[in-house]
């Protein structure tokens, strides 16, 4: 399935709009990841644990969105937007949400 942030697919014509499709994933931030991330902040470098968790959440959100589009018979998802939000009283959760418009191409 073609997924793009643009509102069209180059060389293809949108013949039918099938509606907005979405995907969400929420991940918890655990104390061990926080601890090692804090060490990275002090000595410098990338927080690999957070990056991997964020990547996994983003991939899960995209998979959910694709599944919804596929169930509607879409060939592509256009105008995709990716958002990240911190949730929870102690900012202990991270939400990744994606949305776009499912379309059928000609």
From TrEMBL:
Q: Name one Pfam family in it.
A: YbjQ_1
User: What family is this?
Assistant: Belongs to the UPF0145 family.
Q: Which organism is it from?
A: Azospirillum oleiclasticum
- Please name the HAMAP family in this protein's record: UPF0145
What is the official name of this protein in its record? UPF0145 protein HND93_00220
Which InterPro entries does this one have?
Answer: UPF0145_dom_sf, UPF0145_YbjQ-like
| UniProt lineage | Bacteria, Pseudomonadati, Pseudomonadota, Alphaproteobacteria, Rhodospirillales
């Amino acid at each position: 399935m073609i997924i793009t942030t643009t509102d069209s697919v180059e060389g293809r014509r949108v013949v039918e709009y099938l509606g907005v499709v979405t995907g969400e994933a929420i991940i918890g931030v655990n104390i061990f990841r926080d601890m090692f991330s804090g060490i990275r902040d002090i000595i410098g470098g990338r927080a690999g644990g957070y990056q991997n968790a964020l990547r996994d959440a983003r991939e899960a959100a995209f998979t959910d969105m694709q599944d919804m589009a596929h169930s509607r018979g879409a060939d592509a998802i256009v105008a995709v937007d990716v958002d990240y939000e911190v949730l929870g009283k102690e900012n202990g959760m991270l939400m990744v949400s994606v949305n776009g418009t499912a379309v059928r191409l000609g």
